Amino acid sequence: DTEVTQTPKHLVMGMTNKKSLKCEQHMGHRAMYWYKQKAKKPPELMFVYSYEKLSINESVPSRFSPECPNSSLLNLHLHALQPEDSALYLCASSQVLFRDIMNTEAFFGQGTRLTVV
Amino acid sequence: QKEVEQDPGPLSVPEGAIVSLNCTYSNSAFQYFMWYRQYSRKGPELLMYTYSSGNKEDGRFTAQVDKSSKYISLFIRDSQPSDSATYLCAMLAAGGTSYGKLTFGQGTILTVHP
Questions:
Q1: What is the mean pLDDT of residues B95-105?
Q2: pLDDT confidence of A101, banded at 50, 70, 90?
Q3: Does B8 sit within 8 Å of A111, measured CB to CB?
C-alpha cells in the first residue's frame, strides 16, 4: 500500500467557518507534509512533521493549524480563511525526513481542492 | 533569481514524438533530483529519482543530470496521449537554507495529441 489518502476531495467554506482537512497513510512513514498549490504553480511547503512533532513551519499564517495525532494521521485545521487561500492542499509522506535519509521517496495524496467564499 | 528554473510551456507534441523537458538550477547544494508527473486535479506522482550525473532509464523515460552545468532533463520516448500532464522537476539540497526540503520547478504542461 503506497497510498496517501486525503479527505475531503473538495471543500467550500465561508470566511467565518472552521473546517479540517485530513490525511492518512499506512506505510509506516514517520515524516508527513502539508503543501499548498495554486493553479499552474508548483507545490509550496507549509508544514513538516517528523515522529509526530512539528519540524518545519514555513511561516504559515496562524489561520492554518496543523495537528499530527498519531503516526498515520495528519490534520490541517482551517479558521477565518481568506479567498486567496483557495488552492489545492496536498499531503505527502516519506519514510523519514529528507534531511535524515536523502534518497527517501515522498508520496503525495490526491489533494483537497479548497474554495473559500 | 529562482533556485530552480523550468520552462512552463505549454508543450504540444504528436503521439510517438520524443519529448525533452528541462530544468536548470543555481544552488550547488542540490544533489538529489526528481521528476514528478501531475495529472489535472491530482497529486504529483514520482517518476524518476537520481542523484548522480549521467543517465537513468526506466521504460520510456530517461532522466539525465549534468551537475557541472546545473542542468537536468527528462526524455519521454514514444510519447502517448496518456503522458499529457504537468511535469515538475524537484531537487533536494544536501546543505544550506534549503537543506532537506523539496524545491520544485514551475512545471511544464505537456499535451500529446493523437
A1: 84
A2: confident
A3: no
Least confident of A44-53, A94-103, B42-51: A94-103
Checking if the pLDDT of A42 tops 70, the result is yes
Neighboring chain A residues of B102 at a CB cutoff of 8 Å: 43, 45, 98, 106
Chain A residues whose C-beta sits inside 8 Å of any chain B C-beta: 4, 6, 40-43, 45, 48, 56, 88, 90, 92, 97-100, 102-103, 105-111, 113
Cα–Cα dist B69/B89, whole Å: 16
Q: Per-residue DSSP letters for B27-52?
A: -TTEEEEEEEEE-TTS--EEEEEE-S
Amino acid at residue number B106: Q
Phi-psi region of A69 (alpha: psi -120 to 50; beta: other; left: phi over 0): alpha
B8 CB neighbours in chain A (<8 A) are 40
Residues contacting A59, CB < 8 A, separation 6+: none
Compute the nearest-CA separation of B83 from chain A (Å): 17
Is B92 within 8 Å of B32 (Cβ atoms)? Answer: yes
Residue B21 near residue B109, CB atoms below 8 Å: no
* pLDDT higher at A61 or A104: A61
Query: For position A1, what pLDDT does the model report?
Result: 63
pLDDT digit string, tens, across residues A11-28? 999 999 999 999 999 999
A5 Cα distance to chain centroid: 11
